[in-house]
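Onboarding guide, step 5: your first structure request.
Type a short instruction followed by the sequence, for example:

Predict the 3D structure of this protein.
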Amino acid sequence: MLKHIPNILTIIRLLLVPFFPIAYFSHSPDSHTIALVIFVIASATDFLDGYIAKKYNLITKIGTVLDPLADKLMLLTAIFTLYISGDLPVIIPIIVSTKEIFMILGGFFLYFRKEKSVIPANKIGKTATVLYTLAIFVTILFPASIASWILIISAILVKLIAISIYIFYYFSTMRHEQL
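The system replies with structure tokens like these:
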């Protein structure tokens, strides 16, 4: 049973994605707090599934695909929710969605090729994820604050560095496969 825990946690995170905007836009007086709790639970499952998978050597191919997909879907959902609510300008979801769609399509392309390769996560990408998580958390609590802007801009810059590393990895892998 333990071997399935990381993937179960990832599936829970995927299932939480639609509940974030539902809670955020509900007419409950605590709507933003409820959405924040959903986001924190999703973030905690992200940390926990990675920790368990690494500690107990339970990393699976499907997990290496579903985990970043769940992360990207929650990130995009939160960013677009905050944009629709007026807490973020349109440029933020444009930048984030362009980058994330590129990564999703690139990941599917690599996974569904004959070799089924997967680009491994790197520390810079993980740092960007932490910065985005903090940025969303702070933006929900303190919309349009200086801290929110600093975190969002930092996350975008670090993500751009991470994507350049992923692109380099992709092309070096392709070159190696052709030799």
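Each response can be followed by summary notes, for example: The domain at 2-178 is CATH 1.20.120 (Four Helix Bundle (Hemerythrin (Met), subunit A)).
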